[in-house]
């Protein structure tokens, strides 16, 4: 998968899961970012427990967890 395609999937994940655009996510305050992080962690854990290897939904959630934690 090419980088641009993966970035597009990451952005679409926010829309699909949270009805949230990337721009809206970037404008969130610390409490909102923490809530988003926790929701992504929950999705990652849920998906990891359901299938091996983890689903694309789980991989996207895990990537957002990494992105959010790196930005802190």
Word description of this protein:
With 72 residues, the chain is mainly alpha-helical. Helices cover 81% and strands 0% of the residues. α3 runs antiparallel to α4. The protein is globular and about 35 Å long. The mean pLDDT is 93.
Coarse structural class: mainly alpha
Identify the overall geometry: globular
Order of helices and strands: HHHH
Mean pLDDT: 93
- Identify low-pLDDT runs: none
The percentage of residues in β strands lies in under 5%
Largest sheet: none
Binned, the helix content reads: over 70%
Number of strands: 0
- Ends apart, CA distance between termini: 27 Å
- Radius of gyration over alpha carbons? 12 Å
Distinct helical segment count: 4
Question: Topology of this structure?
Answer:
Elements lengths: L2 H16 L3 H5 L3 H21 L5 H16 L1
Helix pairs in contact: 3-4
Labels describing this entry:
about 70 residues, mainly alpha
Provide a brief overview of the structure.
By secondary structure, the protein is mostly helical. The protein is built from four helices and no strands.
């Amino acid at each position: 998968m090419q980088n641009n395609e993966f970035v597009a999937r990451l952005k679409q994940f926010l829309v699909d899961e949270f009805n949230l655009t990337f721009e809206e996510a970037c404008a969130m305050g610390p409490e909102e970012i923490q809530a988003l992080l926790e929701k992504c962690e929950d999705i990652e854990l849920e998906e990891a427990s359901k299938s091996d290897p983890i689903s694309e939904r789980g991989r996207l959630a895990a990537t957002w967890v990494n992105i959010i934690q790196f930005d802190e």
